[in-house]
């Protein structure tokens, strides 16, 4: 599974075929900025055993990652969302390491694309 | 009305004029001693005219028996109308074609004929004028155009080509030809011997509001009929697409002359049918029979494609999304969808206050948002009146059926799952667009219907007024008076209150009519009615029973015998003191009055009126100009034997 699904990014490129508006670049910068906030919220929620905040943060972050095609990260967030809703915090914490890893991979990939574009 | 001076314009010899039999008819009808059989002989020398006249007599004839002889047709149609029909038919035959290039002679006659038939049917429905007479008026209503095309073929061609909504034909005609088709039509119709009332109505029929005819008068009704007939003819000769736009205009006009949608549809269908028949006989074109009018009226408006007119009326879309990347993504998706203005909000609360400000047509909202969620936003919007019509699309993460049902229960119209697929999203937007257009056209129709209903209500109020008012004196008429009496009677029976009536009759009124004519008689009636009204007290109803007889119903206040007698005496003296001048000679007018009060043994109101009538008779018998009171079967004089004059 690729870290970023290229078809989703192509869709964003299609809104701005000539590239004049630098839409993809702006979009990814916004993604980086908001992802950092979502990650902080997730870490905080797990630390505080706060299921409902975990659920909310995971849900919002999930929508966001879907837009860039970060499918593996989205899948992790979907599981976290469910654990958060069910209050199964122990299960959630089991995913914490994978989350951090996957997050780093996505961030690096995104930064890479921004530099290239 | 301004009539073209054909001598000053030096065109009197150039005007289109009838030939042969029609001309002979015109000449013959100018003689006062012309007889019906002379006219019939003249008509019979022209077989085509005879045939058309028979056709005309039969088409306007509702009786079952067919008319087969020319003299009978002439007497049915009327001499003046026969003459005008002959004129019109003769002109049609002579001016099938001509030198004016831009003037479509065939179309001109096609329109004129359609208007003629529309007028005939309208006259039949509204009974404002004789159908044949109105047929002739419709046929000749634009004859001035033909004249201009005949006299100035080249110049008029240029004017026809140059006309536009900003430069109407009439204005151009005035600028370049020093007259216009309406002035010329009037001049020609006068030459043809058309009665003045029709000439004037035809002159103003393209702009009835400028006529200044008083509302409800006969010329007012005729000019509006002509206006309507002209519009119907425009409708008949127009292209189908224009036709659709004209339907509602015609319906409104129909409402103005008191036609409901159904009788109106039947009328149009009948007109179209006759148009076909006549056009064959006169060899001028007519459109193919359109589908029945009611069907056209009820047909759905043609389906419009989103790109067609979205620029003229942009949709306001409100996008509500808390996640910044999704917001950018969806904004990008919407950017090249045509015809909308996009507003964004990052949570439900902001969306609510923005909605109040911009009243969006479509709201696309995320579900899970801080403070106010998409579900709560939807519910809040739906509780407001302006929020009922918004098309709401919910964005959901997964296609969880339970969640989707919850969203629909809250009032969303549609949902889109994330990640949003471009094509699916655009298809959803198109649905929203159609919904919005349907809603708009529904609102438009509703406005039209409201206006239509309002016009009808006004018409009905007027009708009610005409039906219950005596037009000369503007007092309630017999019908209205009797209704008031019946109601007052049952009130009096129920509440055991007093009720009294007076019959007032003008003395020697017949002499006034005989000596000075009915016009003067009418003037006297009006003046007496007005001065009687001056004396009225609260709770008195004055009405004109007919002729010179008035009824006063008193059902409130002082209506014991003494007060009634005093009141009657006041009226008698008031009228006796009036100075009425007829042809500069002052004339004394007096009235006799019979008063009756509801008595215990009276079973119904006719007995009360009967008692008053007998008292009135006693007053007349005793020498007029006095008041008599009916009491217990006796009649008491209440005026001194030699009334002061």
What would you say about this model in short?
The complex is a heterodimer of chains A (117) and B (645). Chain A is mainly α. Chain A has helices at residues 6-14, 23-47, 51-68, 71-86, 89-94, 96-116.
Describe this structure as you would to a colleague.
- The complex is a heterodimer of chains A (117) and B (645).
- Chain A is an all-alpha fold.
- Chain A has a domain at 44-117.
- Helices cover 81% and strands 0% of the residues of chain A.
- Chain A has 6 helices and no strands.
- Chain A has helices at 6-14, 23-47, 51-68, 71-86, 89-94, 96-116.
- In chain A, helix 2 packs antiparallel against helix 3 and helix 4 runs antiparallel to helix 6 (96-116).
- Chain A is elongated, with a radius of gyration of 15 Å.
- The model of chain A has no long low-confidence stretch (mean pLDDT 88).
- With 645 residues, chain B is of the alpha/beta class.
- Chain B has a 6-stranded mixed β-sheet, sandwiched between helices. Chain B has a 5-stranded parallel β-sheet with strand order 2-1-3-4-5, with helices on both faces. In chain B, strands 9-10 form a two-stranded antiparallel sheet.
- Chain B is built from 27 helices and 13 strands.
- Chain B has 4 domains: 16-94, no CATH class; 97-298, Hypothetical protein af1432; 306-440, Response regulator (Rossmann fold, 3-Layer(aba) Sandwich), CATH 3.40.50; 478-637, Reverse transcriptase/Diguanylate cyclase domain (Alpha-Beta Plaits), CATH 3.30.70.
- Helices cover 58% and strands 11% of the residues of chain B.
- Residues 300-312 of chain B have low confidence and may be disordered.
- The two termini of chain B are 50 Å apart.
- In chain B, helix 2 crosses helix 4, helix 8 packs across helix 11 (181-191) and helix 24 (509-516) packs antiparallel against helix 25.
- Chains A and B meet through helix 1, helix 2 and helix 3 of A and helix 18 of B.
């Amino acid at each position: 599974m690729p870290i970023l699904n290229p078809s989703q990014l192509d869709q964003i490129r299609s809104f701005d075929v000539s590239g004049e508006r630098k839409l993809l670049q702006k979009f990814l910068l916004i993604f980086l900025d908001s992802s950092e906030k979502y990650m902080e919220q997730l870490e905080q929620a797990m630390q505080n055993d706060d299921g409902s905040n975990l659920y909310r943060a995971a849900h919002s972050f999930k929508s966001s990652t879907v837009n860039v095609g970060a499918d593996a990260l989205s899948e992790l967030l979907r599981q976290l969302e469910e654990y958060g809703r069910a209050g199964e915090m122990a299960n959630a914490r089991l995913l914490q390491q994978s989350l951090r890893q996957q997050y780093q991979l996505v961030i690096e990939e995104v930064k890479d694309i921004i530099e290239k574009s | 009305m301004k009539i073209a001076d054909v001598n000053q314009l030096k065109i009197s010899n150039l005007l289109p004029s009838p030939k042969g039999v029609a001309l002979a008819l015109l000449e013959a009808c100018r003689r006062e001693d012309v007889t019906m059989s002379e006219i019939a002989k003249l008509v019979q020398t022209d077989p085509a005219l005879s045939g058309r006249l028979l056709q005309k007599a039969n088409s306007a004839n509702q009786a079952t028996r067919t008319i087969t002889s020319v003299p009978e047709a002439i007497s049915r149609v009327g001499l003046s109308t026969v003459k005008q029909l002959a004129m019109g038919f003769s002109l049609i035959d002579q001016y099938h074609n001509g030198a004016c290039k831009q003037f479509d002679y065939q179309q001109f006659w096609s329109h004129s004929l359609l208007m003629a038939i529309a007028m005939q049917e309208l006259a039949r429905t509204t009974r404002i004028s004789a159908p044949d007479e109105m047929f002739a008026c419709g046929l000749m209503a634009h004859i001035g155009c033909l004249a201009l095309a005949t006299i100035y073929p080249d110049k008029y061609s240029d004017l026809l080509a140059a006309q536009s909504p900003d430069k109407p034909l009439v204005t151009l005609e005035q600028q370049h030809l020093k007259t216009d088709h309406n002035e010329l039509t009037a001049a020609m119709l006068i030459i043809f011997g058309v009665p003045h009332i029709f000439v004037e109505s035809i002159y103003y029929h393209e702009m009835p509001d400028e006529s200044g005819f008083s509302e409800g008068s006969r010329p007012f009704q005729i000019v509006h009929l002509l206006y309507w007939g002209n519009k119907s003819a425009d409708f008949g000769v127009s292209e189908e697409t224009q036709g659709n736009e004209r339907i509602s205009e015609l319906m409104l006009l129909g409402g103005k002359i008191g036609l409901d949608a159904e009788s109106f549809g039947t009328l149009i269908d009948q007109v179209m049918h006759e148009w076909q028949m006549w056009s064959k006989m006169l060899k001028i074109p007519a459109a193919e029979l359109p589908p029945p009018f009611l069907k056209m009226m009820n047909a759905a408006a043609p389906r419009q494609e989103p790109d067609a007119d979205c620029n003229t009326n942009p949709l306001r879309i409100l996008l509500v999304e808390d996640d910044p990347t999704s917001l950018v993504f969806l904004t990008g998706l919407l950017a090249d969808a045509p015809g909308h203005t996009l507003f964004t909000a990052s949570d439900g609360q902001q969306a609510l206050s923005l909605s109040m400000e911009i009243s969006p047509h479509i709201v696309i909202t995320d579900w899970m948002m801080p403070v106010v969620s998409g579900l709560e936003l939807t519910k809040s919007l739906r509780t407001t009146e302006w929020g009922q019509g918004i098309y709401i699309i919910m964005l959901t993460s997964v296609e969880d059926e339970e969640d989707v049902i919850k969203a629909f229960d809250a009032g969303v119209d549609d949902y889109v799952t994330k990640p949003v697929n471009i094509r699916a999203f655009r298809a959803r937007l198109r649905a929203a667009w159609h919904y919005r257009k349907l809603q708009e056209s529904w609102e438009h129709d509703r406005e039209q219907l409201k206006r239509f209903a309002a016009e009808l209500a006004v018409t009905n109020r007027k009708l009610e007024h005409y039906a219950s008012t005596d037009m000369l004196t503007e007092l309630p008429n017999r019908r209205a008076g009797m209704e008031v009496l019946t109601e007052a009677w049952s009130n009096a029976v129920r509440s055991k209150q007093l009720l009294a009536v007076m019959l007032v009759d003008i003395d020697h009124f017949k002499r006034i009519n005989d000596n000075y004519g009915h016009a003067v008689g009418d003037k006297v009636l009006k003046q007496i009615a007005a001065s009687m009204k001056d004396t009225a007290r609260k709770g008195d109803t004055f009405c004109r029973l007919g002729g010179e007889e008035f009824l006063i119903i008193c059902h409130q206040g002082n209506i014991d015998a003494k007060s009634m007698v005093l009141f009657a005496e006041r009226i008698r003296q008031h009228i006796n003191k009036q100075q009425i001048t007829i042809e500069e000679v002052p004339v004394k007018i007096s009235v006799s009055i019979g008063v009756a009060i509801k008595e215990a043994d009276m079973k119904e109101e006719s007995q009360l009126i009967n008692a008053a009538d007998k008292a009135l008779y006693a007053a007349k018998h005793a020498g007029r100009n006095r008041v008599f009171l009916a009491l217990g079967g006796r009649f008491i004089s209440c005026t001194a034997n030699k009334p002061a004059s």
